[in-house]
Design brief:
single chain; 145 residues; mainly alpha; 5 helices
């Protein structure tokens, strides 16, 4: 059974709308790994630097003699000084491991927030620029005219 021209146009329009909505959901910029690794390294070094500054500017950390990894909710506010405490007690490996883990998480969160803000600030109908030459086939066909 042949479709009428109205039904055919409706199907084409539905496909276009679905395709645009699908592309809008999956639209993201390809970011370079090297820039993420630089952000990760910067966050890690910032955390280690903060630990060193924390130890130098809080002399009461040098007077502490006990060190425990047992969680204590009453001392939750002391978490600001965790890096300085780790340095004072010679747990440099633990400090570096924590800084690498937290630096990676911080880099992911900051870059995600910046990406969302950049996406919200960009105009909705901004034309996309292709860097692929026209002779190379792409995985997503161009929209039908």
């Amino acid at each position: 059974m042949a479709l009428s021209s109205v039904e055919n146009r409706a199907k084409i329009l539905t496909r276009r709308v679905r395709g645009l909505a699908f592309r809008r959901v999956l639209d993201f910029e390809v970011d370079s790994l090297s820039s993420f690794l630089k952000a990760w390294l910067a966050a890690t070094l910032l955390i280690i630097g903060y630990a060193w500054v924390d130890l130098r500017f809080n002399p009461h950390l040098a007077l502490e003699t006990s060190f425990t990894l047992t969680p204590d909710v009453a001392r939750l506010t002391d978490l600001w000084d965790w890096g300085g405490r780790l340095l004072h007690h010679g747990a440099v490996g633990l400090l570096v491991a924590n800084a690498v883990a937290l630096g990676g998480i911080l880099a992911l969160v900051v870059r995600g927030v910046l990406s969302v803000v950049r996406h919200l600030r960009s105009p909705m109908d901004q034309p996309r620029i292709s860097i692929v030459p026209a002779s190379v086939p792409t995985s997503v066909p161009p929209p039908a005219p």
